[in-house]
Write a structure and sequence with these properties.
There is one protein chain. The protein is an alpha/beta fold. It has 8 helices and 7 strands. It has a 7-stranded parallel β-sheet with strand order 3-2-1-4-5-6-7, sandwiched between helices. Helix 1 links the parallel strand 1 and strand 2. The chain starts with 16 loop residues before the first strand and ends in a 7-residue tail after the last strand. The relative contact order is 0.14. It binds NADP nicotinamide-adenine-dinucleotide phosphate. The site of NADP nicotinamide-adenine-dinucleotide phosphate (NAP) has 31 residues, from helix 1 and strand 2.
């Protein structure tokens, strides 16, 4: 039997290449640094090129690929640019997303479609293109989709029809891709965060009602703090989770436990 020495090394990403979307702010900005610090080469995607350059100026093992992921061919171009620069792709983190808050009866179906495009269609397309490269090249891989607690339960007082539909779809798409690719050692999992303060939800964090919604819903009575997704990310992208696929890992202070 192998001795359990070097267990922490399982979380290292040296020699691996990751694609990360939504790297220009919030969770993605931190994920970029976590992946790079763990040793991966990282291709960063988002529309705000200057925010990506701020990162690539600090880290040699990063590539900025500014793009709107909803544009036709953008996920393809991102995979191609990554392989051109780093020669391979081992990890995809589908993190880019948007959220709109409004009652369904006031919704505009074109805006709903746009939300589904970035939160569900673009991750599917990027996973498909990167997954195909992994399968064609007989390389193991790890795809991690950033879902949400709102992919498992409704928003309640927070009215999020497009977001909850997209994230619920993303959770089950995770299981579907896992089932198609497991025998080829291409794993697909999701992280479902609770509430972490970012540009997306700064309005909620800025109001008493928003904070009450967050603290009442989380068993731990507080939002997530910066860094509290690092472990889940490193676990799922790395060999530490080599026998894990098709799972949604909730990092939500107990939001979905009751
Ligand atoms: P954020 O700060 O608003 O970040 C969203 C990211 O997505 C930005 O980097 C944005 O970059 C990118 N993006 C949006 N539309 C894009 C497009 N069309 N093409 C390319 N990139 C696009 O929000 P966040 O909270 O970090 O969210 C990150 C992920 O976590 C999202 O999937 C979100 O649903 C999920 N999540 C967050 C929380 C939370 O509490 N924060 C909870 C559950 C799930 P550009 O604007 O530069 O394009």
């Amino acid at each position: 039997m192998n001795e359990p020495t070097g267990t922490l090394d399982l979380f290292r990403l040296d020699g691996k290449v990751a694609i990360l979307t939504g790297a220009s702010s919030g969770l993605g900005h931190r994920f970029a640094r976590v992946l790079a610090e763990a040793g991966a080469d990282v291709a960063l995607a988002a529309r705000r090129a200057d925010r990506l350059t701020d990162l690539t100026d600090q880290y040699e093992n990063m590539l900025a690929v500014p793009c709107d992921l909803t544009e036709t061919g953008a996920p393809d171009g991102l995979v191609a640019a990554t392989i051109e620069r780093f020669g391979q792709v081992d990890i995809v983190v589908n993190n880019a997303g948007i959220s709109r808050v409004l009652p369904a009866v006031e919704d505009d179906v074109d805006e709903f479609r746009r939300e589904i495009e970035i939160n569900l269609v673009a991750p599917y397309e990027l996973a498909r293109k990167a997954g195909k490269w992994m399968l064609d090249n007989e390389r193991p891989g790890s795809i991690v989709n950033i879902g949400s607690v709102l992919g498992a339960v409704a928003g309640g007082r927070l009215k999020v029809p497009g977001y909850s539909a997209a994230k619920g779809g993303l959770h089950n798409l995770t299981r579907e891709l896992a089932s198609q690719w497991a025998r080829k050692n291409v794993r697909c999992n999701a992280i479902a965060p609770g509430w972490f303060e970012t540009e997306m939800n700064s309005g909620m964090f800025g109001t008493d009602g928003g904070m009450k919604y967050i603290t009442d819903g989380a068993l731990m009575g507080r939002p997530g703090y910066e860094g509290e997704l690092d472990g889940a990310l490193l676990y799922l992208v790395s060999d530490a989770s080599s026998y894990v696929t098709g799972q949604v890992l909730f990092v939500d202070g107990g939001w979905t436990a009751v």
